[in-house]
Design brief:
- This protein is an alpha/beta fold.
- The chain has two domains: 3-252, Putative cyclase (Glucose Oxidase, domain 1); 256-386, Nuclear Transport Factor 2, Chain: A (Roll).
- Helix content is 17%, strand content 31%.
- The chain has a nine-stranded mixed β-sheet with strand order 1-13-11-5-7-9-10-4-12.
- Helix 2 packs parallel to helix 3.
- The protein starts with a strand and ends with a strand.
Length: 389
């Protein structure tokens, strides 16, 4: 078992959210003068690594001490969003692959609030800029992305950034549904309004990412100070890797190991091809894991994540690219337990610019499907290469 400390140290003069109380820590008593060492602590309720209660952004909403302790501990579900630009938005499409939170996660399900559920972590990479002005230019959640988190049942979400909303001027271009123009905190409002706690200023999430990538489950502990009526409080955030035998029963998911069937793979492939043919961006990318990889030999492109491919796709669309015809043939499915390889020959005609230019390609596409934690199917790799003439 390995333990990780995910908290920033508290010290005098440390970074705080603009306008929040400064942190001041000084000796109040000393052994030499008083027989014991005692520190005097002066800080705001949102100093350092901290939890936001719903009360933080809504009068009459729940304070920290009114929330069940079960919300502050659970199994980590982590999403790597480090390729989101500084000051850029984390969109619902980028979070479409997150698994449901599990028992007790659904908002409004009071009967399950004390059951263990997963905690969502957003790995932005912003912790590397802690203590600099760049830390203010962090990725933030669009309101639609916050709503998706709520809809998947999460009642706790943490990130290695200053806030789930923008913290610096110019973070949004004013076109996003998460734009804070006119004041307010849209992502906070969506999450807190649905009873979801928010943990900000985490650090060291790359440790959790590596453990999850290596196949280990990670248990989180995000317990805040016990301050009655608090809108927030500092957290000592820690995590530990779990051997399979220590996983709570709710987290032992037999469905995750169930072999894929030919019918399931065929259906998933048919839906993916149909979404591509219709240029249905949301449906298409929702089929891929956030960590999916893509190799496109005709364009010499090797993309390491779904979001990188989405960025390329969006640039094509902006230039006028559209699918005019897509025909699939010579299909083959290779079943490998909880993984399957689907390949086919695909003939595609696309509009390549706004002036109506066309291009036709005949390629071999190979897609690897895998059983997702919730029992569904997700695409984890796509390889596109030219068919031999």
């Amino acid at each position: 078992m390995t333990w990780f400390d995910l908290s920033v140290p508290l010290h005098t003069g440390m970074p705080v959210y603009p306008g929040d109380p400064e942190v001041r820590i000084a000796a109040a008593l000393t052994v030499e003068a008083d027989g014991a060492n005692v520190l005097s602590l002066g800080l705001g309720s949102h100093s350092g690594t901290h939890a936001d209660a719903p009360l933080h952004v809504g009068e009459g909403w729940a304070a920290l001490d009114e929330l069940p302790l079960s919300l502050f501990g659970g199994i980590a579900e982590i999403v790597d969003v480090r390729d989101v630009a500084r000051g850029g938005a984390i969109t619902a499409a980028q979070l479409a692959g997150i698994a449901p939170a599990g028992p007790g996660g659904a908002s409004g399900d009071s009967g399950g609030q004390d059951k263990p559920a997963k905690i969502l972590l957003l790995h932005t990479g912003s912790a590397a800029a802690w203590g600099t002005e760049e830390y203010l230019k962090h990725p933030w959640l669009e309101a639609a992305a916050a709503q998706l988190i709520v809809d998947r049942g999460y009642r706790a979400v943490g990130l290695d950034a200053l806030s789930v909303d923008p913290s610096s001027p110019g973070a949004s271009d004013g076109t996003s549904d998460g734009n804070p123009a006119g004041g307010g905190f849209p992502a906070h409002a969506v999450l807190a309004g649905n009873g979801c706690i928010i943990v900000e200023n985490l650090t060291g999430l790359e440790q959790v990412q590596r453990a999850r990538d290596a196949g280990s489950d990670v248990e989180l502990f995000l317990f805040p100070l016990n301050i009655p009526g608090a809108d927030g409080a500092p957290v000592r955030a820690v995590a530990r890797t779990l051997p399979a035998a220590e996983l709570p029963a709710a987290e032992l998911r037999p469905a995750a190991l169930r072999p894929l069937s030919r019918e399931e793979v065929q259906d998933a492939a048919d839906r993916l091809v149909a979404a591509f043919a219709a240029t249905d961006t949301e449906t298409y990318f929702a089929a891929f894991s956030p960590q999916a990889t893509f190799i496109f030999h005709p364009e010499a492109q090797r993309l390491g994540s779904r979001s990188a491919y989405r960025t390329l796709w969006d640039s094509w669309l902006a230039g006028g690219w559209r699918v005019l015809e897509c025909r699939s043939s010579e299909q083959d499915i290779q079943l490998l337990g909880a993984t399957a390889v689907f390949s086919h020959r695909v003939a595609t005609t696309v509009q390549i610019d706004r002036d109506g230019g066309r291009d036709t390609s005949d390629e071999r596409e190979t897609i690897i499907f895998s059983r997702a934690p919730d029992g569904g199917i997700v695409c984890v790799h796509e390889h596109l290469s030219a068919c031999p003439q």
